[in-house]
Structure formats: C-alpha cells, structure tokens
C-alpha cells in the first residue's frame, strides 16, 4: 500500500523517483516553480494527495488475439499503463496471437510480448492466462469470447461486440453463466474531455437534455478503386460505418444521455463493387457506406446520428453536441483535449468557452503531464486498460460490460431493421 504525498524534490513529470520508505510514494511536479506558475492551483500530487494505492497484487497475465491496428494500440496500453498509473500492477504481456506466423512473431518482438502463437484455441487452453483480449474483426468475436468464458478467463472484446444481435446475446449469456469479468472496448468513454462532459451532465450543469447530435465521419474509401478489404464484407465486418462508427456514438449517447427507445434509419452503399485485395477481379461491397438515423431517448431527448466513410476531408471526425435547458456541450475528437461549454445563464457575456481539459483535476489527467501538455488517441486506450485492470485487481465488474455491448448492438440492429422497413422501430431488449 502506498500513500501519495505532496512533497517537493521529485520528478517533474510525477514519476516515481524514490521509495525511501516502502509505505510512502512521493510524487509531485510542484517542486519546480516555473512548472506551477499559478501557485496554489492543485496539480498532480495535490489532486491525488492522500489517495492510497494498492500494490503487490498479482499481475494480470494477458493474451492478445490480433496484432494489427487494435493489437498495436492495446499492446501500447499494457506496456505503459503502470508507468503512469502506479496503482495498477504491471500486467504480464504473455502471448500475442494471429494467423500469420512470421508477422505475429515480428509483432511480439516489436510490441514487447513474451511469446507468440497462431492458435487462439491453444492460448485459451493455457493455465497461465487470466485475460483474453479480442482485437480481431467481428466475425471471430463470438467464437473466441465464448470459448474464453468457458475456460474461466476474463474477456475484453473490441467493438462492436459482435456482428449480429443473436451472437452478442450468446456472448453475454456465456460470460454471465461462467461469471467471468467482461468488458467491451468503447475507448472514447475514456477521453478525459468526454468523461468530464459526463461529470458536468451528472452535476446538472445542462439541466434537462433536449438534443444529442453526433456525427462520425471518415473519407478513407472514397476512391472507387480502394480494394474490398474485410471492413467492406458483411460476413466479416457485419456492417460498414454503421457497426464501426455509429457503434461508438451510440455508446457515447448512452454514456452521456441515456437509453435509446426507438429509431428511424437509412443506409446507402455508393460504390457497389471494388477490386479484390489480391488483384484478381472485382467483388461486391456487402456493407453500407453511410448510415444515418434519428432516435428518441427514454428521458425525452431526441437524437441524430450520422456515420460515413464518404465525407471528403473528414479523417476521424467524431463530433457531438448536447443541448440542455441550462447549457450546451460540444466535442470534436480531432481536438480531443478540448470541450466546449455554453452556459445559458451568462447573459450578455454568454458564448461557448473552450475548456482545455488538461488540469490535474480533470479525469485521468493527473497521471500524465502538467496543464496544457496535451495527450492523444493512444492515451484513451491506456485509460481503458487502466480501468479494466483496476476492476480485475479489485474484483469489481468492469464497464462498459458485454451487456452494454448488447444494448448497443440492439440499437444498431433496430436501425437496419428500420431502414429496411422504412419506418420507426422500437429498440429490442438486450435479452
Ligand atoms: N476502439 C476503436 O476505436 C477501434 C478502432 C479500430 C478497430 N476497432 C475494432 O477492433 C477490431 C479489429 O480491428 P482492427 O482495425 O484492429 O483490424 P486489423 O485488420 O487491423 O487487425 C485484425 C487482426 O485480427 C487478426 N485476425 C483476424 N482473424 C483472426 C482469427 N480468426 N484468429 C486470429 N487472429 C485473427 C488479423 O491477423 C489481424 O492481426 C474490430 O472489431 C474493429 O471494429 C476498434
């Protein structure tokens, strides 16, 4: 057990420098006056003073399935989490798994895994693994997660939880039957500005919420000659930007506003055929290129959602605005350190203000850098892994859980149903 103190004479960045007494961990960046120009403003050590930090717990032994985009970013999170969040016992990066032996060996070396494997079945059967991290395309999530749950492992699965609602329900039933910890990887909940937005909403700063308006726009497949990769094939990806991007903003709407009860949606596929990745002919695009829907929330708010890969100039443009009776919030992932807040009561001085969410009191920030020293995309995964490992250490249920993943899947499915029927559809229950 460590107690965090605010005492001068330590590392500028709040890193653990000395442990003269094993019971006291001295962490502060207030020692150097120029780093703390506002004097009394609470910074890392102040914000964390008195917090007790458990250590000496068993390290979580992790196996990661998938070594490309999410594999790389999850590896980074496991590798760095304990350097910044010392209350988390450093996880053991046991084994990384993928289908190509040469590439998975190179990934193990590059990302810092002890071993590599081409069989997720072998990895799940091992006794020395506690947590299975599923960072593969959606067509393999259900099979791997159900096998992992049956083997008694904790399961951390990338989003969307599955390619269909029945699959997602089976995954939920498996983890609940086996009573294993489970989490779905909606990392954007852990953007400090978004966690802070939730705090403001919970404090009542927006009052009753009227509107949730979100867009998640990209442009990476606008070239009609872009190949038919797995993300454009329904049997592998389930859907296009709908499951890929709308899943994120649906989860954020639930995190910030509440449950969605009914939806009215439409989808479109602009380019129906593309070259096959191996260059041998062309194949049919079987997913949406754009998916839009309107929604009603349980609490009376209304919402609009738009996801597309055809918004020229928009690279990873996740934005939302929330309008309430007392104020509004606005966020843009491409400016993720900032949150815009408008307070209706400010009279003639009113206007959206830019809050730079980099103060020690803001969610997660105390672990990183002094105010104004911005963080980025990968940090959201470090926060996610931090919260997951903390829950495992404390034997608590991590969130968002597979149940959250199923509820998101139910909204996704209701939108597709509505688009097909050309009418409003109620969101089905998760079970
Ligand atoms: N949280 C986010 O913001 C975010 C961002 C991107 C992707 N994702 C999700 O992460 C998942 C993976 O996407 P990605 O972009 O990393 O894909 P990717 O194509 O970059 O990597 C997929 C990996 O899975 C491996 N793989 C595929 N099938 C496998 C199998 N049957 N057994 C073992 N390994 C297998 C591949 O070898 C590869 O290493 C998807 O569910 C996707 O929706 C989430």
What does this 3D model show about the protein?
The protein is α/β, with parallel strands linked by helices. The chain has 3 domains: 1-53, no CATH class; 61-186, Rossmann fold; 189-371 and 402-425, Dihydrodipicolinate Reductase, domain 2 (2-Layer Sandwich), CATH 3.30.360. Helices cover 30% and strands 23% of the residues. It has helices at 44-48, 69-84, 101-111, 120-125, 141-150, 165-178, 192-202, 234-237, 241-256, 377-394, 402-421, and strands at 2-5, 24-26, 52-53, 61-65, 92-97, 115-117, 131-134, 154-158, 182-185, 209-217, 260-268, 273-275, 282-284, 290-297, 302-308, 317-324, 327-332, 338-343, 353-356, 425-426. The chain has a 9-stranded mixed beta sheet. The longest helix is centred in the last third of the chain and has 20 residues, at 402-421. The radius of gyration is 23 Å and the shape is globular. The structure holds nicotinamide-adenine-dinucleotide. Residues 65-71, 97-99, 120, 135-138, 140, 158-159, 185, 187, 244 line the site of nicotinamide-adenine-dinucleotide.
